[in-house]
Amino acid sequence: MNNPSPAGLTAIYHTFGCKLNFAETSTVAARLAGRGIRRALRGETPDLIFINTCSVTELADKKCRQTIRSYNRRYPGAAIIVTGCYAQLKSAEAASLPGVAVVAGNDRKGEIDRFIDGFLASRLPVTEVIPAREMQSFTPSCSRGDRTRYFLKVQDGCDCWCTYCTIPAARGRSRSGTVEELVAQARQAAAEGGREIVITGVNIGDFGKRQPGLAPGAPRQTFLDLIRALDRVEGIERYRISSIEPDLLTDEIISFCASSRAFMPHFHIPLQCGSDTVLRLMRRRYDTALFRDKILRIKELMPDAFIGVDLIAGARGETPEEFARSRDFLESLPVTRLHIFPYSERPGTRALEIPYVVSQEEKHRRVAEMMALSDRKLEEFSRGFIGTVRPVLVEHSGKGKPMAGFTDNYLRVSLPGASPALDNLIVPVRLSEITLSPKGEAEFIGEILPDGSASSPRS
After folding, report:
1. What was the pLDDT predicted at 207?
2. Is residue 250 over pLDDT 90?
3. Which of 135, 145, 238, 431 could form a disulfide with 196 if both were Cys (CB 3.0 to 4.6 A apart)?
4. How far apart are CA 402 and CA 415, in angstroms?
């Protein structure tokens, strides 16, 4: 790479972890494209490799290290830029890996182009990481993902300090944009042809706790204020809330989503464990009674709602008896799908003080048991929609595959024979047969109704 300026360079982007990371990667890619850095074509040797990392588990750290080394072996002349939670928490380790030119902390992603300029000028590695407690800035962003939807970053950081979690140390304190800033981002997405926006953040229910862009003396804005304002943005026909803590999912938010113009019947709610004893050890801010109440409230107002649930299997303190309570609790709830993670020891967390330790073998057994429960719940939920008509946002699939899309309540639908001209349109689709993959994925075969060439309102 001999070019002293970024214009004309090519880049590869690789993202680990959460939807927030994917949103931020899209923003960085757009920013670098504005500087003349284009995405490398298939088979082309890149000049830059941007890796947005995750550190939610030790396995995540390992995958990040392996990926960095793999890219360096494959493209030894490329400059590797590492950011994200692994880069924030283990910056010296990241900087020591072969090929790494830039290490940027989580609040420095908006300055990646400047760090690249510095490296190009000096050929000296750059590390820009500040302690999480010093992070104060927030830059809202709304970037298009790989398909039709946009990701709107509304919040960052977390103040909860659950005993097993490193996110506050990696992302800093909770902070968010203003309603006005974020509505402007959504309007821009609509002007670009966006139909669907996924609202992302670390703890989005905490929206408004700290708002660097809010005028002094102005009243604090809430997440309910935000979604009410977003619902009024013309052109955006769908919003999805990526994840929201159960204690911050108020009845007012649920009621608004049920009656809103554009918020979909689709929720993702972290539980982590269905045992009150373990929830207390985790220092979660709710109990199973509150969680049950939220699930039943959603189903009362939105019977067709898809509800995903995060779960940690084998956390410290989760005895066989507490695991059984957790499984039975989830069995009793009308949730749709479980996202299950084996517990991972994280250095510096208070969970290490909890004496009961679950073996790796038992963790994997519990993951498999919960996965079987998840598969069954997803199948039961999905089969209830065979023969129904739902609105589907059509999108391109991979090369050689038919057009596909998701219903309002997040059921994936394959659309054989659908015209590419329907890309990014919402059409009424009759759901027919359903297939279930070994990985627990459900996909319908859909038939677009004759009047399906134009947008259709949510049913």
Report:
1. 97
2. yes
3. 238
4. 6
Of 9, 85, 19, 81, give the one whose Cα is nearest residue 50: 81
Distance, in Å, from the CA atom of 13 to the CA atom of 442, rounded to the nearest integer, reads 28
The CB-side HSE value for 378 (13 A sphere, CA atoms) comes to 25
Q: How far apart are CA 388 and CA 434, in angstroms?
A: 12
Q: Burial level of 146, CB count in 10 A (0-12/13-18/19+)?
A: exposed
**Residue 166 to residue 42: CA distance in whole angstroms:** 36
**Cα dihedral 4/5/6/7 (nearest 10):** -120
Q: Which residues lie below 8 Å from residue 88, measured CB to CB, with a gap of 6+?
A: 55, 105, 106, 129, 132, 169, 170, 171
Q: What is the number of other CB atoms lying within 10 angstroms of the CB of residue 239?
A: 23
Question: For residues 262 and 278, what is the distance between their CA atoms, to the nearest angstrom?
Answer: 37
Matching residue, tokens 């208070």 = 350
DSSP state of 148: S
Calpha distance 404→346 (Å, rounded): 39
DSSP three-state, residue 199: strand
User: Where is 120: in which H helix or E strand?
Assistant: helix 112-122
